[in-house]
Design goal:
This is Host specificity protein J. By secondary structure, this protein is mainly beta. It has eight helices and 37 strands. 23% of the residues are buried.
């Protein structure tokens, strides 16, 4: 209802010019005592004494958990475990799993993209698999374990939806992909090969090229990364984690990248994020482009495919099946193949479900025929085959783009995929990189160099064997054999061979050093491998240990330096032999071995017995060593 307000000045009027008597009405304020509502807002009230802060404005920080979001109904966000098979339903719960934080951002109508994307427009099944991957426990760098990826971030300002989506995906090593029906996500993690593509599948251009390759620039291969993350140990301020690859720095130089780990509050996760960037840029440097007919397209963006390019590999690695003999499990191929003499070769075939299956090759009866075990069900004539040999790495790629051309064909772009990268980044594993081609110009390193000494026709032979971590076409091996050591070393012989073994004959007794290194077709030499061996009579045992038993005594000789080529001769006597030259005539010969036991009623307690032991090998015998007990 209306009301009147009357204001009266009680002081008398002023009689001086220093004070005006005029009074003006300015405004009035109504104070209404009501309880306000703050929807979707966390309100905190705090009353403090201003004198405690010297009258200055105080700053208050809060440790918040964040929103209650939708998570799978079979998911326990506290224990990060999944029970049973998910039926697709969701439940409200707190979780810092980045997959379900992303789901909340995409489907929430207030702060997210829920007004433009519905729940049916987002592939929650892909997010379910990504969420499980993020919850797997990995080393945290301090002797414990932690989830592979967590997400703790707050959105303080409005930004473009694509930028926010990219930041969310960067925390999970994934990328968003629109597959034509839903928004799905492809994560950089090991997965099964969807389809192998060979030279017979692709469209050849005017230059006769089917697969076109490109490589990343040297400036894009970073060897050190500074990762900024929110550090709980630093008062939730930003800290920087430096990640380096010393071997890459020696090879390429120091190339630094600075990055922000969005939503990261773990030093271990920040380190893995930086290491993932380094290993991705150093290991996955190759991109392939090719064109397929509409009937040959068997994958979608994000799938892992295998490229069996005969031209790149330098040997025949893929093609089509011309005939199938199910009884003998023999396949007739559309081209002749060459299999290595050592190691197990496998072939990838397409089964009745349209999935590639790897089976062993058990026989090679003809240049264009192979026998496999087992023969997968549903293998058809003119189906694709891809060969995997011990010396060649499988060339795996992840599809990143598919474009439809005007002539009805499809252009595919894929980047190199190294499945070992996960173990390298998350568990610190080390792998020897294997080449995917025989046409390499870098000579391989020599490894596993061994020498076996034997005797034949009154002369000594030395058989050297070695192998290499990868196969290079046209490579040869240079061998250098020297005798003696130090200043007394002299060159005995050199040799060049294309195989991985070589025999030296007519060697006199002595100490030898063998050096082997690879040489490519241009004369460039690889890293050498060196080993030493001796052709000498063995050293005498350093001692003989006698162990008494029940009417038994066992002799175990020991060498000062272990030599696997040395055995021991055992002689036994019930009386001491003063002259070692009389052992063979006075003692009883027991045999040769690594140890020997003598038993019987004549082995009586309180009586001493004598063993005479000497070392033997192909070259000769040592002096006797006496032991009694």
């Amino acid at each position: 209802r209306p009301f009147n307000i009357r204001m009266v000045r009680e002081t008398a009027d002023s009689t001086t010019d220093q004070l005006q008597n005029r009074t003006l009405w300015s405004s009035y304020t109504e104070i209404i005592d009501v309880k306000q509502c703050y929807p979707n807002t966390a309100i905190v009230g705090l009353q403090v004494d201003a004198e405690q802060f010297g009258g200055q404005q105080m700053t208050v920080n809060y440790h918040i958990r964040g929103r209650i979001i939708q998570v799978p109904s079979n998911y326990d966000p506290e224990k990060r475990t999944y029970s049973g098979i998910w039926d697709g339903s969701l439940k409200p719960a707190y979780s810092n799993n980045p997959a379900w934080c992303l789901w909340d951002m995409l489907t929430h109508p207030r702060y997210g993209m829920g007004k433009r994307l519905g729940a049916a427009d987002v592939d929650k099944w892909a997010l379910y698999a990504i969420g499980q991957y993020c919850d797997q426990m990995v080393p945290d760098g301090f002797g414990g374990t932690e989830p592979r990826m967590t997400f703790n971030a707050y959105l303080a300002q409005q930004r473009k939806a694509w930028d926010v989506l990219s930041d969310f995906c960067s925390a999970m090593r994934c990328m968003p992909v629109w597959n034509g029906q839903t928004l799905t996500f492809v994560q950089d993690r090991p997965s099964d090969v969807v389809w192998p593509y060979t030279n017979s599948d692709v469209v050849v251009d005017d230059n006769g090229v089917g697969f076109r390759y490109s490589f990343s620039a040297l400036k894009d291969r970073h060897t050190a990364v500074e990762v900024n993350y929110t550090d709980p140990q630093n008062g939730w301020q930003t800290s920087t984690e430096l990640v380096e690859d010393p071997e890459a720095i020696l090879r390429y130089g120091r190339n630094l990248l600075k990055m922000d780990a969005f939503g990261c509050t773990s030093r271990g996760q920040a380190h893995r994020a930086g290491l993932w960037v380094i290993k991705t840029e150093l290991l996955e440097t190759q991109t392939v482009d090719f064109t397929l007919g509409s009937q040959g397209l068997r994958h979608t963006p994000g799938d892992i495919i295998e490229i069996c390019d005969n031209d790149y590999a330098g040997t025949l690695t893929g093609g089509r099946i011309l005939a199938i003999d199910a009884a003998s499990r023999t396949l007739t191929l559309d081209r002749e193949v060459t299999l290595p003499e050592t190691g197990t070769s496998t072939v990838n075939l397409i089964n009745g479900s349209g999935k590639p299956v790897s089976v062993d090759i058990t026989a090679h009866p003809a240049p264009d025929r192979i026998q496999v075990s087992p023969l997968p069900d549903g293998v058809e004539t003119y189906g694709v085959w891809g060969l995997k040999m011990p010396g060649l790495r499988r060339r795996l790629f992840r599809c990143v783009a598919i474009r439809e051309n005007t002539d009805g064909t499809f252009a595919v772009t894929a980047v190199q995929h190294v499945p070992e990268k996960e173990a390298i980044v998350d568990n610190g594993a080390r792998f020897e990189p294997q080449s995917g081609t025989l046409n390499s110009v870098i000579p391989p390193a020599v490894q596993h160099l061994t020498v076996e000494v034997s005797a034949a026709d009154s002369q000594y032979l030395a058989l050297a064997k070695w192998d290499t971590p990868r196969v290079v076409k046209g490579v040869r091996f240079s061998l250098r054999l020297t005798s003696g050591s130090g200043e007394n070393s002299r060159l005995l012989t050199t040799a060049i061979t294309a195989g991985t073994e070589h025999r030296f004959s007519g060697l006199p007794p002595g100490e030898y050093t063998l050096t082997v290194r690879a040489i490519n077709s241009y004369g460039r030499q690889g890293e050498p491998a060196t080993t030493t061996f001796r052709i000498n009579a063995p050293a005498a045992p350093a001692g003989v240990e006698l162990t008494p038993g029940y009417f038994q005594i066992t002799a175990v000789p020991r060498l000062a330096v272990y030599d696997p080529t040395v055995q021991f001769e055992f002689w036994f006597s019930e009386a001491k032999i003063a002259d070692a030259a009389q052992v063979e005539t006075s003692a009883r010969y027991l045999g040769t071995g690594s140890q020997w036991s003598v038993s019987g009623p004549h082995i009586k307690p309180g009586k001493d017995f004598w063993f005479y032991v000497r070392s033997v090998n192909l070259v000769g015998k040592s002096a006797f060593v006496e032991a009694s007990g």
